[in-house]
Design brief:
With 233 residues, the chain is an alpha+beta fold. Helix content is 45%, strand content 15%. The strands form 4 sheets. It has a 4-stranded mixed β-sheet. A two-stranded antiparallel sheet has the order 1-2. A two-stranded antiparallel ribbon has the order 6-7. It binds zinc ion.
Length: 233
């Protein structure tokens, strides 16, 4: 009895054979089955290859996506940084502008329509300042109207590049002229008169061990260096 059996992709003839079937018939049938099996194997192989290709394409897509995500994040970070630099630059610019027009003095009239005197200073004899004696004995002065702070200049803050931009010491040249100007300005600010006396820290002197000279030497420069980016804000 012969029957057709459906195996999904290929139809295979199978069954038990009556002795009436000739040897030839049996060989032909075996050949046919072998060929069908071969086709089935080739189909499966093809399907496997297709899947492999799909997987590879998916991997490529994913890696491209990861790459573009990274690129987007990098650009975002760069833009954030640029924006921060712009805001910081603008803030510094407006501070400098305001500080350059401020009289750093008390007094002046304020009304609801004109509050400028609060930022630009008044016309009193007395300075609108606070003074603070730092822990190493340096006198720092800050204008309460515009926020300008006078402190002993620190050399590492006076390096400039060819375009005149303030840069790190490794990127520029030291300007003795600008350093001297700042020093003069600070010394003049130390003479400002105002009401009250300076607030003060406990005064200490700073020393460091000089390995080569084998003795204690003055460490005030190091203290000032560490305070270079600070203001009395
Ligand atoms: Zn001021």
């Amino acid at each position: 009895m012969n029957e057709k059996q459906n195996t999904g992709t290929t139809t295979v003839l199978s069954g038990s054979y009556t002795p009436a079937q000739s040897l030839d018939d049996q060989i032909k049938l075996a050949d046919l089955q072998a060929k069908q099996l071969e086709i089935q194997l080739k189909n499966e192989e093809l399907t496997a290859k297709k899947l492999e290709i799909q997987e590879r394409l998916a991997n490529i897509d994913e890696s491209k996506k990861r790459q573009s995500d990274r690129e987007i994040k990098r650009k975002q970070f760069e833009n954030d940084l640029k924006q921060k630099a712009r805001i910081f630059g603008q803030q510094r610019y407006t501070d400098t502008l305001r500080q350059s027009v401020c009289s750093h003095r008390k007094g002046g009239m304020v009304d609801s329509r004109n509050m400028r005197v609060l930022h630009e200073g008044g016309d009193s004899e007395k300075r609108s300042i606070i003074r603070h004696r730092m822990i190493n004995g340096d006198l720092w002065i800050r204008c309460t109207r515009c926020g300008k702070t006078w402190a002993p200049p620190v050399e590492k803050m006076f390096y400039f590049d060819a375009d005149g931009h303030n840069v790190a010491p490794c990127d520029g040249v030291f300007s003795q002229g600008r350093f001297n100007d700042a020093d003069k300005e600070w010394k003049e600010a130390c003479k400002f008169t105002t009401t009250g006396s300076p607030s003060s820290s406990v005064i200490c002197s700073f020393h460091k061990w000089d390995v080569a000279a084998r003795k204690w030497v003055d460490g005030n420069t190091e203290y000032r260096d560490s305070m270079a980016s600070t203001s009395l804000r």
